[in-house]
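Form 7-S
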Amino acid sequence: MKRICAAVSTVVLASALASVAVAETQWGSFDASRINYPTGTLTGSAHSVLRSIIEANDGVVAAPTPTLTDQYLSGVDVFYTSLLSTNTGTLSDPEKQALRTWIIGGGTLIVTGDIFPLGAYESFTAPYGVTNWRALTNVGVGSPVAQHPITENVNGYGFNTESTYTYGNDAKLLGDNGRGDDFMIVMEPATGFTLGGRILVFGDHNMFTNGMINGNDNSTLAGNMAVWAGQGPVCEQIKKLKVKCKPNLKLIGKVRSSLSEGSTLKLTRDGGDERVVVLNKRGKGKATWKRSAPGEHEVCIVGCPEFCCKAVCNP
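Output:
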């Protein structure tokens, strides 16, 4: 028995994908009252090259805000921290709640840390399991350690005094500081982060400022980041899930999407027995469970509850 999943119709998804392809991604950020130096805001002179890269990839840098509120966040798709103020960078409890609500709704948070103020960065990330920020203060070149659209064509990225941190099983390590310390992680449905949105964390903010962005592969990394941020949640890029069971009790789940080659998705059988699917250059991939028990089975894409399909295995 074979069933094509379209609980959220493919017509609706196609429309959503079309809007993702042409819509401009709104980038939010703090104003100078929450950033450690006046030119260090995303709208400031220190980030003019980064802004050009964002704009070249269908992004728009929105007016900054002094406070995270539901109203402000509802108007942006991405929030970028930069170097938070040592005096005012820490989020208040109402700001943490507004940020959480926004992430649940599909927002993308990009945290660019530094050796200070560690408590301020922790206030952004601790609710999502990224904790124990620790200053390392090295100057050097980091390296990707995993294949991902963000690290594509990136061999090394320069940084100037960095931090590291700990994180949970729902994050994927993308890069280190060249000395074995964790530097760059991503949290998204494909990594097991199921809250709704996505989080990207770097151990340094200087790497994307004008003084460093044109060195090493920093500009390539920034471009990849801008493209990734503009793609929207992973689930919006999944077009179809097919599930079938062959007479030999082999259960197969096939995914078709517009995701980049090398992207990964996690599929489960009956709520467990997880398989990691690496997508090919056409955005397709499949998971297989051999010798499944006779009867009905449900295959789901982790983090995308609208994509769950059932098939019956008959011996």
